[in-house]
């Protein structure tokens, strides 16, 4: 009698183990450039410490009993790697909506779901000695000015339309801030999860010489998008991860960001 009761239990355990292992390791592509507080370090290796976003992605995967294999690439290659299926996930903004090979979480109306995304704020930093008020409209001040941006930034076209002269020569966030500090650019524009994510870093490093303008250039969302190939073969796991993001995921991200921005 005990054996008969034990056999179904063994099968249940085996089934649970197979379900946990079926997802395997997701290949997550992210920038190979130092972007505090999100992605730390340069090159192919994961940084030590890795950055708030790396830790967050690990928890994102673990929510569906998956592990993560990180792939660091230049920004312009992230989407093409996702579309080809060489990566399973990467971060994208609204400009990826409708791009073949990229799958975003959708709401009931079929639009990209903002509840299963994180926030995106594109902000501008300027030199304090140039006399700009923090309330200055960043797009108006950029007309005819040399503006540093991260190479491959999707908002670059918007800045050009506003009359900015783009400088994409510095590979990292600190490099761009240093160019601004030295007067080689007139502003630096960067996308952040929270508008204040770089404030302590900038204040500590530049001692008040660089300030952030209060008004964001753009407020939108950032998604952890899946490749069409991965979504088709792991739909339930992907939806589970996205649902976690829409529940506890962003709360966890905020805690991880605090760990990196307040210390």
Topology:
Layout: H1 2-22, E1 25-31, H2 52-62, E2 67-73, H3 75-84, E3 89-92, E4 102-103, E5 118-127, H4 138-141, E6 146-149, H5 156-161, E7 165-167, H6 173-181, E8 187-192, H7 199-206, E9 210-212, E10 218-227, H8 228-233, H9 235-261
Parallel strand pairs: 1-2, 6-7, 6-8
Antiparallel strand pairs: 3-10, 4-10, 5-8, 5-9, 5-10
Helix pairs in contact: 2-9
**Helix percent band:** 25-40%
E-strand count: 10
What is the H/E string?
A: HEHEHEEEHEHEHEHEEHH
Low-confidence spans: pLDDT under 50, at least 5 residues?
Answer: 1-21
Number of discrete helical segments: 9
Distance between the termini: 59 Å
Biggest β-sheet, characterized? 8 strands, mixed
Instruction: Round the Cα radius of gyration to an integer and report it.
Output: 21 Å
Overall geometric form: globular
Strand percentage lies at: 15-25%
- Mean pLDDT over the residues: 91
Structural class: alpha/beta
């Amino acid at each position: 009698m005990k054996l008969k009761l034990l056999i179904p239990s063994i099968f249940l355990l085996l089934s649970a183990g197979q379900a946990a292992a079926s997802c395997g390791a997701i290949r997550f592509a992210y920038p190979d450039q130092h972007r505090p507080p999100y992605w730390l370090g340069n090159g192919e290796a994961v940084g030590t410490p890795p950055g708030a976003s790396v830790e967050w992605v690990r928890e994102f995967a673990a929510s569906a009993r998956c592990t993560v294999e990180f792939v660091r690439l230049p920004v312009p290659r992230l989407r093409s790697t996702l579309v080809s299926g060489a990566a399973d996930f990467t971060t994208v903004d609204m400009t990826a909506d409708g791009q073949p090979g990229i799958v975003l979480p959708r709401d009931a109306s079929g639009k990209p779901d903002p509840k299963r995304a994180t926030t995106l704020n594109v902000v501008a930093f300027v030199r304090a000695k140039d006399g700009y008020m923090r309330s200055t409209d960043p797009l108006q001040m950029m007309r005819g000015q040399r503006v540093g941006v991260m190479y491959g930034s999707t908002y670059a076209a918007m800045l050009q339309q506003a009359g900015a002269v783009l400088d994409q020569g510095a590979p990292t966030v600190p490099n761009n801030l240093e160019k601004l500090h030295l007067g080689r650019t007139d502003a630096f524009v960067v996308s952040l999860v929270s508008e204040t994510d770089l404030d302590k870093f900038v204040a500590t490093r530049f001692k008040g010489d660089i300030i952030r303008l209060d008004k964001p250039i753009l407020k939108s969302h950032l998604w952890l998008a899946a490749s069409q190939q991965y979504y088709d073969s792991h739909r339930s796991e992907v939806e589970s991860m996205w649902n976690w993001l829409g529940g506890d995921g962003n709360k966890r991200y905020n805690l991880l960001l605090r760990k990196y921005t307040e210390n």
